[in-house]
User: Which sequence fits this backbone?
């Protein structure tokens, strides 16, 4: 099976010019999107931050490509 995580969707957004963080580390994306949520490198916090990064990137892609997501 193939998995997709926040890095993959952030990479697509970066390639499309929708975001421009210096790298795609979760801690960098957390700062770039100004996401709160506690310390990095703790399992629950990282999972919640990943979810938020994924949602924000998805919304950017949806707006840019007008993907119907109903």
Assistant:
């Amino acid at each position: 099976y193939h998995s997709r995580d926040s890095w993959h969707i952030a990479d697509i957004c970066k390639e499309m010019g929708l975001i421009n963080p210096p790298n795609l580390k979760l801690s960098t994306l957390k700062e770039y999107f100004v996401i709160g949520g506690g310390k990095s490198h703790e399992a629950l916090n990282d999972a919640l931050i990943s979810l938020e990064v994924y949602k924000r990137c998805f919304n950017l892609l949806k707006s840019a490509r007008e993907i119907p997501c109903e």
